[in-house]
Amino acid sequence: MRQPVAILLALVVLAVLPTLAAWAGSPATVPLATRILIYGIAAASLNFALGYGGMISFGHAAFFGIGGYVVAILFTHWFNEAPIFGLIPGTNQLLITLPLAIVVSGLFAAAIGALSLRTGGVQFIMITLAFAQMLFFLFVSLKAYGGEDGLSMRRPDAFLGLNLRDRPTMYYLTLVITVLFFAGLRRLVRSSFGTVLDGIRQNERRMEALGIATYRHKLFAFILSGMGVGMAGALMANAMRYVSPDMMHWSRSGELMIMVILGGTGTLLGPLYGAAALLLLETWLAGWTEHWSLGEGLVLLAVVMFSRGGLIALLRRRT
Amino acid sequence: MILIIEQILNGLQYGVMLFLLAAGLTLIFGIMGVINLAHGSLYMVGAYAGTWFAALTGSFWLGLPAALIAAALAGAALELLVIRRLYHRSHLDQVLATFAIILIANESITLLFGRQPVFTLLPEAFSGSVELLPGLFYPAYRLLIIVAGLLVALGLSLLITRTRIGMLVRAGATNREMVRVMGVDIRMLYTAVFGLGALLAGLAGYLTGPISAVQVGMGEHILLPAFVVVVIGGTGSIRGAFVAGITLGVIDTCLRAFLPDLLNLMMPVAQADALGLGISSMGIYLLMAIVLLIRPKGLFPVGAT
Question: How confident is the model over A12-23, as a mean pLDDT?
């Protein structure tokens, strides 16, 4: 009974956040909150593969970048009125670019997952990293799309006549998508598919003995996870109006993993808390000292060494 | 022809560097089961400590022991304070903890030495070139690195195959639990192996100083290729690390040197350069993916863990 009340309360706070921020005269709050929600989606998607499926992927930033690049590339072609390969017209309609970003990252996740899942353990960690690095270097070398410098978008995509350049509007759109995403994820985790996945993580051989095609289940979970991260990337491209290969850098994959662990592996809302904690910590330390990553490193180390189960476990222990 | 030999030698030199790092990584992984992302930080520590001491004393050769001692001490401290608590944790926790160490190490070095790259002075005796073949001049210092790397490889293989410690190391890589059950003080072995790995990383870091700049983040640049070497060679296998290190070093260097020119035959220079660079950077990762798909345990798998 208590949990729904707490979530409702949190939603109310999130809904009035832009008003509060305007009242408190801190314009940086709304973009920060938008980024937290977007990273929360990405981390929760990674957590679906990592926490629920037991697949430690060190390459999920690739899907983040792909989602972002789909949006930015389509926009650039639309803006320059030059169809891709002279055939496919670009577009700036969010209703097209967002689903397309999800589908394309899903396709990449299918290819990468199908190959990577033939290995396991450390080899799986390393091969996912390898694929992400390949995509990273591919986009670095694509001079047509900005290469190392990335690609900026003159405007965000158009969506139902809303002005997404207006920060509160972008925030509310992200908030709505976030709520829908987590509602969907909750259903997925509690579905029979989610239960099977949980079983595979605990004991793959036993699940196989029960007659379950574990490879196919894991692959499907990996694809769904990649799609979620891709969606987050597409939203990020709209929020920042800029994409670059940096979105796929391996340290970005590491950051997503940190958010998952920080919040709590294998929990529904944990990664969202983890994203919030990490980004708030970064912002706070960066405002305090130029050497903020020293503090961040120390905090991370402490969290890994001394806490089991992340922030969400701490919260649960308190209540 | 001369150009090709020169690039192969460059590749050999890079491969030897990769081997020095990968040897430590593969032992640490094979024996302790720890993924140590902070290995690149030890490489950086060695480079900075050696360069600093060399600048202080004005002698390249005095910098060398300083680099080795600093890296080994940093490695031993890392093992005692952090890594020791991670042996029984999941790979995920290990990745994160050592990732945090990277952040801490990079920022500490920035605080101590600033963000500007530092240059190591070249030892005078090796500042010239050597004529290897008629018309083929090659920098003496790079030859020194190749020779030093090969000597270390020889020494390591003797250590691993001929000594008691080496026997324990091999046994540990094959079956950790069994070694412990046989009454070996495994904790001493762990610290020793970690220190040795750190020493090799420090050596590589210091030797690379005069060729490329010593700067914050240099460790991460070489860390991922070194991991690729470990995985391709088979985790825990020194021989695998050597073969894979040299092979990857040569392939990577040759791709970088020749691919843009080859592509240039088909497209304009600017595009060929960018695409060539991109594809050659992808090369080693592509190779790793292929090797893993054909032989999931790497080229020279060690026992079962």
Answer: 83
